[in-house]
Amino acid sequence: MIGLGTIINALAIISGSFIGLVLKQNLKDSFKNTMMQGIGLTTIVIGVTGAVSGFLASTDKFLFLIIIISLVLGGVLGTLMKIQSKLNNLGIYVEKKFSHEQSFAKGFVTSSLIFCVGAMAIMGALNDGMKGDLSILAIKAILDGITSMILASTLGIGVLFSCVSVLLYQGTITVIAFFFKDFLPQTVINQMTIVGNILIIGIGLDLLEIKKINVVDMLPGIFLPIIYYLITLVL
């Protein structure tokens, strides 16, 4: 079922928010850290498994070159576009704007940004739409469930309603990916998937605080295999 991953993600946010509202401030940091480490390890495993599977399934002799160029050039484009910086500034702006507003608005906007802005939301929705693969969104659902529990315990019920933002945002990407997949050969989809899974590994390393990687700046790399494919058609 297309979109099931996003539905699971939204339900996880709802569940986590309810638990957070009940527990309030009683969540210990030791529990939070242990849960986040478990998610980080699982995220790396999913990224590695997806990338390796993509390499094994491909017969493209230029695959490694395409992946390297996509990651490097994508990172350069993202840095020039200052994607990470702009998103950080957006978060700061929203936080300042709602810092003196009622807690519902602040909880809703803050959590919506956290759950919607990131590589996992985009890559997970793309995988769901193109391949029906829910693995990335399943991990994101667990991560968002824990995060919503923590946020709801401090910011209140507004966090719960951020599930609507997730449904609309990820759902839209999933639907677009589903309809456009028929216009792209499986080779290109495989290349995009490998790049995306490598970025997922970066997210896992970041969650474990092993290495800070600007994954968001590298997001354009996911779509560069499409450019390569269009160039080959012309040539």
Please write out the topology.
Elements: H1 4-23, H2 29-57, H3 63-81, H4 83-98, H5 103-116, H6 119-131, H7 135-155, H8 162-180, H9 186-207, H10 224-234
Helix pairs in contact: 1-7, 1-8, 2-7, 2-9, 3-9, 4-5, 5-7, 5-8, 6-7, 6-8, 6-9, 9-10
Notes on the structure:
By secondary structure, the chain is mostly helical. The protein has one domain (4-234). The chain has ten helices and no strands. The longest helix is centred in the N-terminal third of the chain and has 29 residues, at 29-57. It is elongated, with a radius of gyration of 18 Å. The N and C termini lie far apart (38 Å). The model has no long low-confidence stretch (mean pLDDT 84).
Features:
235 residues, mainly alpha, elongated
Compute the number of strand runs.
0
Low-confidence spans: none
Q: Name the helix and strand elements from N-terminus to C-terminus, one letter apiece.
A: HHHHHHHHHH
* Helix content percent band: over 70%
Q: Rg from C-alpha positions? A: 18 Å
What composes the largest sheet? none
Task: Determine the number of helices (DSSP H or I, runs of at least 4 residues).
Answer: 10
Classify the oligomer: single chain
Structural class, by secondary structure, is mainly alpha
